[in-house]
Every structure is written in structure tokens, then in C-alpha cells.
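A favour, since you know our C-alpha cells better than I do. Could you add the entry underneath, on a fresh line?
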Amino acid sequence: MSRQIGIPTGVVTALASAAFVLSWSSGFLGAKLGTGQAPVPTLLLWRFVVVAAVLGAALGLARLLRPARHRRRAGRPVTGAAAAPHLARPRATTHHVVVGLLSQVGYVLPVYGAIGLGVSTGATSLVDAVQPVLVATLVGPLLGQRVRRLQWAGLATASVGVAFLVAADLRVTAAPPWAYALPAAAVASLVSATFVERRRPAALPAVPMLALHAAVAAIALLVIALATGTVVPPADAGFWGSTVFLALVPSLAAYGLYWTLLRRVDVTTLNALLFLVVPTTTLAGAGLFGEALSPATGVGLALSGLGVAAVIRGEARGAARAARGGDDDGPHRP
């Protein structure tokens, strides 16, 4: 009887999930710091320039080491497409250009814009967390998922929770009401990227994939920064500290973990992890930036949590029924 050697897959997934929640939360907090130091296009442009440079260096080093490793194993050099197989996948590259635009520029730019306009980090993260569940369920048939009554009830409850928190936030911030639509637009873009990835998977290794996403984002943001006259970064050390932090943690760590978990868990479970970002960000925002907490804030968080839990419970029931041989109305990967 064989014994498994190493860390069990479930433990790895749990650790990756915890790291994902922490690193994703840091993006909202870092955005609050960064948008106070430079315009949003400037901050994001140089953030992705740093990300692209780090990943580009990693890819270059890997290409230098790979032929030497193959020579030691096979006694001959490896060149061309065999030395870098991901470069021989033009279809995968084109696919991930679209995914990169949606998941990086389409998501991050509206989130930073909302926070720069005064929307609290907690409110931004809540809309960010609840909207994927809503969108994923409304278009569930695209993922082969049947929507159940419990899930509809959960969505309604979570939506009321969002309304409570946004109403509480509007009372204490100077953000215009329309700014609260920006996080929803950001999430719609991220969920679109998720659907593109899941409906037509075009696998790339993690580092080349993230490097491509960062390069696409940097080019798009350069165009935006040139159009708005915000290319030149401040010389302030605080700006560069924030930029490097945002490049290493929310970009490299959070997005890497997002796509890693997307291949390990279903979309609804990943959306539930996004909701765990909400209390983390809300409490940190109150402690670091003095963002207000009120009874309405607590009600909004509680209702949204109950709603998301109901959506997850509805999916779990369907999966259990399918496992018993009943009607397979649970989610599956197309």
C-alpha cells in the first residue's frame, strides 16, 4: 500500500487560499496609499512596468538555464521552440492578450479610480466580492451550472447587504454616487476574463502567462497615460515604495494565486474567497486610514456573508446530489 509523500493537495489549496485573501486585500489598501501620491494612470503604469520587468528577467533566466539542464540530461542542446515551448503557442498567446486586458486593465483601473474618488476600501472590496457571485450565477449556463432557489435567495440577500454598506459609506465619504459603479464594472471585466479562460482554456505556464498579462497592461496604460499627460512619475521615495509593493504583492502574488486557484477550485468557491477579503480590508482600512465603521456597515457585511454562504451551500447540495447519482445539476468544467 503506497503512502503519499509531501504536502497533501488539500493543505496546499488551503494555504494558497489564505495567501490569496491576504494578498488580494493588500491591493485595496495599497491603492488607498498610492492614489494619494500620484494620478491613477501614473501609479498603475509604473506598477505594471515593474511587474513586466521582474517577470521578463525571470523568463530570461529560465531560458538561459533550460538548455544547460537539457544538455546535462540528454547530452545535446535544446534550441528554438523546444527550449521555450510556450513561445510556439500563438493561439494561447492571443487568447491571453484578451484575458490580460480584461483581468488587469479592465479590473484594476476602475478599482483604483473608485478609491481615488473617495470610495472606502471596505465598500470597494464588498462590491468586488459580491458581484462575481451575482454575475456567475446569472450567466451560470455558460459554465454548465443550474441555478437553484437557495442560490437566488442568497443573491438577493447579498445584494441587500451591498446596498446597506454602500448607503453607510455614502453618509461618511465625499465620493459621488456614480463612483460606486466603478467596482462593479471592474468585477464584470474580471468575471469576463474568468469565463474566457474557463470556456476556452489556452494553458500557458504561470510565469509566461503573468508576464504577457503585465506587458499587455503596461502597453495599454502607457496609451492612457500619454493621452492624459500622466506618464512622468514623481521622484518621491514613497511613490516608488508603494509602486514596488503593489507590483510584488497584489500583482505577482494575488494574480498568480488567482489563476492557480482557478485551476484547483470551482468559480463559486473562488468568489467566496473574494468575500473573505471584505472583512479583512474593512478592518484594516478602519485601523490604517480611519475609515468609518457603523452598525449599517456591520449589517451589510453580515447580510452579504449570509447571501454568499447560501450560494455556496446551493452549489454544494447540487454536487452532493450528483455524487449520489441523481440529476447532475451541479457545476462542471466545459
User: Anything to note?
Assistant: Residues 76-88, 327-334 have pLDDT under 50 and may be disordered.
